[in-house]
Amino acid sequence: MCASYGLDPRFGDYKGFARANDREMMQNLRDWAAKKAEREPGEPMRPTGKNLRNLNPIFRDMGEGPHLESAWWGYLINGQPSKFPSINTRSERLQQKPIAMSGRAIVPATSWFEMQKPSRTWYRFELGDLELLGMAAVTQRGWPSGGEQITCYSIVMQPAREDLVDLHDRMPLLIPGGFAEEWLAAEPSRELIDAAIDAGREIAERVHATAVPR
Asked: What is the pTM of this model?
């Protein structure tokens, strides 16, 4: 599972994500990440929970093209964080039940973190040069207690690359910029997951892992 991830404000372009409003959207994302880095130096993004009600940026498309939105990592059920694991969703489950893909997003990141067991060593996974990653996500609506409706998201996880399995058996489904609009706007189907896995294969092959103190 993806336990936390990083978004360095010095990130590079999300290659191929080419709409007229990209420049402004990416600048807004960079500004958000810079403010977080100033407020919480070195702190990665973590799931939102009962005692941690942080919101993180995601890309979504509600029919008018991609836009940046703040969202809750993990599902809200009746105003409370779900009691079942909801921060990650297996790609195989979505292939079996495409209806669960009705709402989708892309989570921008420059790295993600996993703990190797039983050594309990933490590893950072990234591309290098602060290249921006797009992690596939599925979404649903939630209602915080006493608050307005909000988007909740769950990061889609696929089987890890063979040479990374010893560190962790899953990795995020990575969406390249050139496939971003299709992932966000296409009709949900098993074929969409298959196409996303194929589209992200080249990026997944470039991921490398580094042990980090935690």
From this structure: 0.94
